[in-house]
């Protein structure tokens, strides 16, 4: 038997593939990243920005698990801005516009520095699959007809070369069966000028997986020299740019401003008059696009009462003229694109460098996945990113990291998996949503998806996750050292701030307004009041001088929500206890009785791993859960 | 075979001797079980047919009974159902049930099990099950009314309406959080605040009405107050038509509140005659006077009984001037009206217009007027409660109260992410109320108050 070429092979060099490959390699697995063009690794296909509300949370989590994205954007961000800065810390969204080239270079450098990792150029056209023995009566048949008796053993390249590996991570992005539409023009491609993975798509379709089509779009790219900037409102970066990575001490990249302009009734008229020529409206594209990142055709149709839509003009780099007009993605024909863009203030003379397009691609219904992102029907095959129905770099990165880590654990022969629960992380919320609800439209992260939003904050991602990464062996030595120093400092300061308690009179004497109710209050209690600044506390209590401001700020934020978070612990207990009730893959739902036909079909096709997952499948009622539990008890 | 699929049987009508008794079966074997007792063919579904019932083993005649069958999905429980309407002798009922329960896959139903199956099979909503429980327990017309199918539909519409508005508010709140980079300036002014105020008003009104229902499970309370020896006890005896109060000529005979119940406009009305209110109270009477004051405050209808010329309690709903044998009925209607106006110079017009009745306790003259006045007061009292908004069970009230509490925690200055948390908690409480999701304990608690056969 031929020995393996690699432990883990990752297909794709986008944001999911990069995190997957780096995570597997960090865990010590010998890893190969296979992609069409090595120079395109880390390319930002759509908007040149990382983060935002919800998405910024994900980047912080990726970084807390020692991923690539946070460190790369810190080396490439040219406009750092915290969204929702005036709102509470749980919903603040760190965001940065990137210099495309700097970002790609930073990603490639970080991968080059990673041991155990090789990047190979090539097209994967198929997977080497092993039958896990003949089908028996025990073989689980999923509702889609797939039998759980295959496992993956490697990949086949276009030149016929076979690379063997114990596990494979598929991160095909928009390339799997990718089709680009500009007006009536159709072209098979993953990005403009880049070939799509048609062969791999054909291969996967032959496996009888639940495959669907989704679409996304991108706007035209403008020549910044032809924009009349003097007419535009400008938005500057934050004065003190806040890094994404817990390892970055400060941002060294020069910061720039971007322009803001608006569409107008004339723009809308041009679009309305030509809507029938758009690939989306002509019926050429039938697949679903994201509701929350609509094309401009969608916007003027669905929000007909709005007489303008905001457009951010985001320079794509420090030394290039290309500008990304954020907010007007489109699949209209080229002449219409030019006409409506030139109807916008500041863009009257603009020249288009590259036209906008819509792209359709294959995705696999993520309900076919386990919570470690492995396919239920095929051992050793992991999926991450847009192939699972998500949209966005950050969503892709978070999945890639988790899939890569699990691919490595499997390759090592360990039974252990790296999974994250809904109360621990946004990554956990996302994966749980995907595997229980599917992705009827491209899935984007929102903070409102996280029921434990107050505890899942961008500021405390390291407190939530880095210890897990360290324990698993997923964190580099640098990360381990930095975290243990910070954890010690936090513990020290927290102990002091929680144990030092003063009477209301004493606090008043120090200049802090407080109720005279005889209740002694700790420093943490007082810090939880928004108006009590750390500087003020330090001035009143010189003993605090020995603690770092950033550490004390963290304690202040933790204290702010402490009461609310405590009240959610019973919800977390329910979640955890239901997750402990495992449902074996061959659980005989048909014998439960009292399940409706719809419930029976949902449960047998999705086959949730535990009762907690089952409870979140839309259409499965509490009564069904009770019946399943009774059946389990009797068995 | 799973527990759920067992066929259950029980007496569905009241226990004890009756003209007819109804035995109900539900489950896959319901029809077969009946067939085991019948020699001829089974009737077509939904068609009542008279058949002789025989013991399946001995062949002995048990009874002659009407049989009624319902198909799966088209029955109370959603399962196949059979009803046997036999003669209402406990002996016959027991014999038939014994025969049925001896059959394989048939067993006696547990308390509430029929309704429970109806709920699990989607034939009834949680609100409908609770209303059914309330209906079977109802003592007053408004309890019966509030448990009616139309009212339950109304409650469901009301609660769903609250939840829909809260979801819409939450959608706006979440949009202002998650779409920070979009142009959503219209949300900065928190346009959901007026909706919140409206919701708070509706929730409070509903809870007030529900609380009133809860407090008046047994009917309304009518307190009759007045100086000692004005003849309050005689008045009650006359109204109720029997001697419930000890009556004596000397002042202060009644030392404690005494009660009698009559039905007015279909409503049980408890009449309480308080111990007389006097200034120079003896030690024995002190307690009585205290209680009299408390009862007066609590009363739904306050009747002030006086002798001609005595003062009137200002917040009485009715004033009754009583005459005994020793007194001539001297006062004319116009004089009485004049005196009333003099008595109460500071009172509003509506209060002044309270009925002023005259009753002869010896002959009962004027009692019909008092009865009519009580009936009018009872109806007015019920109408003013807004009972259409009331919820039916303590469980529903507790969850509506939870929802109100979290909504009360929101104001303009509440950080937006905490507004979202409060709204989510409120929506969850209403979802539980509607039974959209719940736990086994809730089901158990729900059904344990049910009697067998329902």
Describe this structure in words.
The complex is a heterodimer of chains A (635) and B (454). With 635 residues, chain A is an alpha+beta fold. Chain A has four domains: 277 residues, FAD/NAD(P)-binding domain, CATH 3.50.50.60; 137 residues, Elongation Factor Tu (Ef-tu), domain 3; 85 residues, Arc Repressor Mutant, subunit A, CATH 1.10.10; 54 residues, GidA associated domain, C-terminal subdomain (DNA polymerase, domain 1, Orthogonal Bundle), CATH 1.10.150.570. Chain A is built from 20 helices and 23 strands. In chain A, a hairpin with a 2-residue loop joins strand 10 and strand 11. In chain A, helix 2 runs parallel beside helix 9 and helix 2 runs parallel beside helix 11. The radius of gyration of chain A is 26 Å and the shape is globular. About 2% of the residues of chain A have low confidence. Chain B has 454 residues and is α/β, with parallel strands linked by helices. Chain B has three domains: 122 residues, Probable tRNA modification gtpase trme, domain 1 (Gyrase A, domain 2), CATH 3.30.1360.120; 133 residues, Four Helix Bundle (Hemerythrin (Met), subunit A); 146 residues, Rossmann fold (3-Layer(aba) Sandwich), CATH 3.40.50. A six-stranded mixed beta sheet of chain B has the order 3-4-5-2-1-6. Chain B has a six-stranded mixed beta sheet with strand order 8-9-7-10-11-12, sandwiched between helices. In chain B, strand 8 and strand 9 form a beta hairpin. Chain B is flat, with a radius of gyration of 30 Å. The chains are: A alpha+beta (635), B alpha/beta (454). At the A-B interface, helix 20 of A face helix 6 and helix 14 of B.
């Amino acid at each position: 038997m031929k020995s393996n070429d690699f432990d883990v092979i990752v297909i794709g060099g986008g944001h999911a593939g990069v995190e997957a490959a780096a995570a597997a390699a960090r865990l010590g697995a010998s890893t190969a990243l296979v992609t069409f063009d090595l120079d395109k690794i880390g390319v930002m296909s759509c908007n040149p920005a990382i983060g935002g509300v919800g998405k910024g949370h994900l980047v912080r989590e990726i970084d807390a698990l020692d991923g690539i994205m946070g460190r790369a954007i810190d080396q490439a961000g040219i406009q750092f801005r915290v969204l929702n800065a005036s709102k509470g810390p749980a919903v603040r969204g760190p965001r940065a516009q990137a210099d495309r080239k700097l970002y790609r270079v930073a990603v490639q450098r970080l991968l080059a520095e990673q041991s155990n990792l090789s990047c190979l150029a090539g097209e994967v056209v198929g997977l080497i699959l092993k039958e896990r023995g003949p089908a028996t009566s025990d073989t689980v048949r999923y509702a889609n007809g797939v039998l759980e008796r295959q496992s993956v053993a490697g990949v086949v390249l276009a030149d016929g070369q076979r690379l063997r590996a114990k596990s494979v991570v598929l991160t095909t992005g928009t390339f799997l069966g990718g089709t680009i539409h500009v007006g009536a023009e159709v072209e098979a491609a993953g990005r403009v000028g880049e070939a799509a993975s048609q062969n791999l798509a054909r291969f996967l379709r032959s496996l009888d997986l639940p495959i669907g089509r989704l679409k996304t779009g991108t706007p035209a790219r403008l020549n910044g020299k032809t924009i009349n900037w003097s007419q535009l409102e400008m938005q500057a970066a934050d004065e003190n740019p806040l890094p994404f990575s817990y390892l970055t001490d400060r941002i060294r990249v020069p910061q720039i401003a971007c322009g803001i302009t608006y569409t107008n009734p004339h723009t809308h008229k041009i679009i309305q008059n030509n809507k029938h020529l758009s690939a989306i409206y002509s019926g050429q594209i039938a697949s679903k696009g994201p509701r929350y990142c609509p094309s401009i055709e969608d916007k003027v149709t669905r929000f007909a009462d709005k007489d303008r839509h905001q457009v951010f003009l985001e320079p794509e780099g420090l030394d290039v003229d290309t500008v990304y007009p954020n907010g007007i993605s489109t699949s209209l024909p080229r002449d219409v694109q030019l006409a409506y863009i030139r109807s916008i203030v500041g863009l009257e003379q603009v020249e288009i460098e590259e036209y906008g397009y819509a792209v359709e691609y294959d995705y696999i219904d993520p309900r076919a996945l386990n919570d470690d992102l492995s396919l239920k029907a095929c051992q050793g095959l992991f999926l991450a990113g847009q192939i699972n129905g998500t949209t966005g770099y950050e969503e892709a990165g978070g999945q890639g990291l988790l899939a890569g880590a699990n691919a490595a654990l499997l390759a090592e022969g360990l039974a252990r998996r790296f999974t994250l629960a809904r109360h621990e992380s946004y990554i956990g919320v996302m994966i749980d949503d995907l595997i229980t609800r599917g992705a009827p439209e491209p899935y984007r992260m929102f903070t409102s998806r996280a029921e434990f939003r107050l505890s899942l904050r961008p500021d405390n991602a390291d407190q939530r996750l880095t210890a897990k990464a360290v324990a698993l062996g997923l964190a580099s030595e640098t990360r381990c050292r930095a975290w243990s120093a910070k954890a010690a400092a936090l513990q020290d300061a927290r102990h002091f701030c929680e144990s030092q308690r003063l009477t209301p009179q004493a606090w008043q004497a120090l200049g802090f307004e407080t109720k005279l109710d005889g209740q002694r209050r700790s420093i943490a209690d007082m810090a939880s009041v928004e108006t009590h600044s750390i500087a003020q506390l330090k001035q009143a209590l010189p003993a605090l001088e020995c603690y770092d401001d950033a550490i004390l700020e963290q304690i202040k934020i933790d204290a702010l929500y402490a009461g609310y978070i405590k009240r959610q612990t019973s919800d977390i207990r329910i979640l955890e206890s239901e997750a402990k009730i495992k449902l074996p893959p061959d659980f005989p739902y048909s014998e439960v009785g009292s399940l409706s036909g719809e419930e029976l079909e949902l449960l047998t096709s999705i086959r949730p791993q535990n009762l907690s997952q089952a409870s979140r499948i839309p259409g499965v009622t509490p009564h069904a859960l009770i019946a399943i539990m009774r059946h389990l008890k009797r068995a | 075979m799973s527990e759920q699929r067992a066929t259950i049987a029980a007496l569905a009508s009241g226990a004890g001797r009756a003209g007819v008794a109804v035995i109900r079966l539900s489950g896959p074997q319901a029809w077969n079980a009946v067939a085991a007792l019948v020699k001829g063919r089974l009737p077509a579904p939904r068609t009542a047919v008279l058949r002789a019932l025989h013991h399946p083993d001995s062949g002995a005649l048990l009874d002659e009974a009407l049989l009624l069958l319902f198909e799966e999905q088209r029955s109370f429980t959603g399962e196949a159902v059979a009803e046997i309407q036999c003669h209402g002798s406990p002996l016959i009922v027991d014999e038939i049930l014994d025969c049925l329960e001896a059959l394989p896959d048939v067993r006696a139903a547990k308390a509430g099990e029929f309704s429970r199956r109806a709920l699990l099979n989607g034939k009834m909503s949680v609100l409908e099950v609770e209303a059914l429980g309330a209906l079977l327990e109802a003592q007053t017309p408004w309890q019966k009314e509030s448990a009616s199918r139309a009212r339950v539909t109304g409650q469901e519409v009301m609660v769903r309406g609250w939840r829909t508005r809260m979801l819409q508010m939450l959608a706006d709140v979440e949009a202002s959080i998650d779409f920070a980079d979009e142009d959503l300036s219209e949300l900065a002014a928190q346009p959901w605040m007026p909706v919140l105020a409206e919701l708070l008003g509706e929730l409070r009104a509903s809870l007030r009405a529900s609380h009133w229902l809860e407090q008046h499970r047994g009917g309304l309370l009518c307190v009759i107050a007045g100086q000692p020896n004005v003849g309050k006890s005689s008045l009650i005896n006359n109204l109720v038509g029997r001697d419930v109060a000890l009556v004596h000529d000397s002042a202060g005979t009644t030392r404690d509140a005494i009660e009698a119940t009559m039905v007015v406009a279909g409503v049980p009305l408890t009449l309480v005659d308080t111990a007389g209110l006097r200034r120079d109270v003896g030690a024995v009477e002190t307690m009585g006077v205290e209680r009299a004051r408390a009862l007066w405050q609590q009363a739904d209808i306050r009747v002030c009984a006086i002798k001609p010329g005595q003062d009137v309690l200002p917040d009485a709903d009715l004033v009754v001037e009583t005459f005994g044998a020793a007194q001539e009925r001297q006062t004319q209607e116009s004089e009485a009206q004049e005196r009333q106006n003099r008595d109460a110079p500071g009172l509003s017009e509506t209060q002044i217009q309270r009925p002023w009745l005259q009753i002869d306790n010896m002959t009962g003259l004027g009692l019909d007027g008092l009865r009519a006045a009580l009936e009018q007061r009872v109806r007015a009292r019920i109408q003013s409660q807004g009972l259409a908004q009331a919820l039916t069970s303590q469980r529903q009230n507790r969850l509506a109260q939870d929802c109100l509490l979290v909504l009360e925690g929101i104001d303009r200055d509440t950080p937006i992410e905490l507004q979202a948390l409060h709204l989510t908690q409120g929506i969850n409480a209403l979802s539980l109320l509607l039974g959209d999701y719940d736990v086994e304990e809730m089901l158990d608690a729900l059904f344990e108050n049910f009697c067998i056969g329902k």
